[in-house]
Amino acid sequence: MKILRINTRTREHRFEELGKYAGLGGRALTSRLVLSEVPADCHPLAAANKLVAAAGILTGSVAANSGRISVGAKSPLTGTIKESNSGGMFAQKLARLGILAVVLEDCPPKDAPPVNICINTDGVSVTDASAYAGKGTYECMDKLRAEFGQRTCAMLIGPAGEHQRLAASIQFSDPEGRPARAAGRGGLGAVMGSKKIKAVVLDDAGCGVVSPAEPERFKDANKRWVEILKSHPVTGQGLPAYGTAILVNIINEAGALPTKNFRFGRFEFAADISGETIAETISKRGGKTKEGCHSGCVIQCSQSYLDKDGKYLTSGFEYETIWAMGANSLIKDLDDIAMLDRTCDDLGLDTIEMGNTIAVAMDGGVIAWGDGKAAIELLRKAGTKDPLGAIVGNGCRYMAEAVGVTRVPVVKGQSLPAYDPRVVKGIGVTYATSTMGADHTAGYAVAQNILKVGGDVDPHSKAGQAELSKNLQVATAAVDSLGLCLFVAFAILDNDKGVPTIAELVSSLTGKPYGVDDVVALGAATLKDEIDFNRAAGFNAHHDQLPRFFSEEPLPPHNLTWDLTEEDLRGALVK
Amino acid sequence: MRVTLKCFATLGRFQPENAADFPLKPPETVERLIARLGIPEEEVAVVFVNGVHAPRETLLADGDRVGLFPAVGGG
Predict the structure, then answer these.
(1) Can you give the residue range of the structural domain that contains B7?
(2) pLDDT higher than threshold 90 for residue A59
(3) Which residues of B touch A447 (CB under 8 A)?
(4) Considering CB atoms only, which of A253, A451, A558 is closest to B73?
(5) What residues of chain B lie within 8 A of the CB of A319, using their CB?
(6) B73–A441: do the CB atoms touch at under 8 Å?
(7) What angle, 0 to 180 degrees and rounded to 10, lies between the N-to-C axes of helices A372-381 and A334-347?
(8) Fewest 10 Å CB contacts: which of A451, A488, A511, A574?
(9) Contact by Cβ (8 Å): A548, A449
(10) ipTM
(11) Set of chain B residues whose Cβ sits within 8 Å of the Cβ of A451
């Protein structure tokens, strides 16, 4: 495995040995590289920032659900270090090309044209992408596959990334070639835009899977691994049948579904936007209720959502998106919500950030509450040079400042996901203390607080939440570094054989000893790197806080407030 | 007494027609209600009564809102 460095100003590239990065992968690699090579005080859209896309330690092998990509840089949205994780075909093809990570460095002049980078077994080519400029990711994917081959995949940005909007995503194409998977959070699309890269295309024709050092041991371990994933009711049944939107009803029932910009814990029309309704709608219209975001996925939580006329509209239509565009904005029309999701993917914008931005715009009177059509129109401006579009595309905090809204659900500039921290206190700890800003995936305590998977911790009490969040943050950093889908955590937290089996996969793949302790150490070291970067960038314990309104306003129906102190939250930090 | 009852996801097939206003004779526990609906006990992973996680021995009261879920996850 090699690291490929591309200088976006000179267009020169070089392959390097892993050197000091050997043994790392995914988030462990992106965070170590950003800590080592990016000045913490740099402007995230200036030449000193680097954008790193890394395959995980297990990626490229046939290990189930090991095809996730980690994208890292200093975030223009939060000012912290960032790892944003996505599905799609990119990570597997990258690893199969013998490349563990691509690092995009430096910046061309502001008036330079955008370029596409294509990587295949012959090497690296950089081609003019003027014909792609300003185009949505769906149209660009069609053009890229026509230009570079139908079997290629890509990481690419939409107009929002080209305009360097703070909430711009990087989109990844799925097995069908649709750019429906996203490294959404933290504005990394803007970093890619600042480097004038429209797309990185991979063609792995002629490459095989990454072969294990000990094939028989690996095969046995993977067989057990697949069995662990398939036998757990969440990864084996719930997620394939209903997708992640299966959560709408249970979070609503728990009184934890943030509604009308975090004013209420239940949404009157939750049933209209539930996983059950979505699955029924998809089936009725002839779409697909289950799909994988990458080859080798045995969970299949994705789908193809068709519009009223039976035409493909979107995929990777997630709970978080449906909440943000739905309950939080009081929009109940599923087709409007699906169009908002499609528009985010096409313009290259984070759906969680955009849902919060729309809700704050509604709070500020820019558009009416619940008006899905107006929300779509507002969102579309974010792909243009319209000044209101710039405000939308820069996210929730920016919108709040622009329209004078004081109810701003962000931590370190990144807006909150789909669980109210006042009644799911474990996830509140993660929002407050994560190295990433408010991020549910960083330590998903919803599992133990609400779903009762992997343990049982009372969601309304502050007892035990800091320790729970800390342990989950370490485990998540490890999962993200291995290249595994985070949803494997549901199965491994309930199965004693889970983590040992993962360690066995790593050991038999690499031919080196690897144990459970190594998995934990990998996660802890990654978090320490991220904390070190953030400290150097000026963040401290005072930034590890939720917005004050969560402590002041009780949330119906349980009428609880956020009551964890700065001291309580310190317990969640890895030292 | 009467409760509001909801059976979600794969448990939807056990939801009775009068679920929105379901009559019960006290004393009734969550456990007995699950049996009364014909739901195999192992299929129920999470029970809410009035939005709070409820153990199986919880006694139901008039006007309670009961939610039954199989194992679910996502995010």
Answers:
(1) 2-69
(2) yes
(3) 73
(4) A451
(5) 74-75
(6) no
(7) 0
(8) A511
(9) no
(10) 0.98
(11) 45-46, 71-73
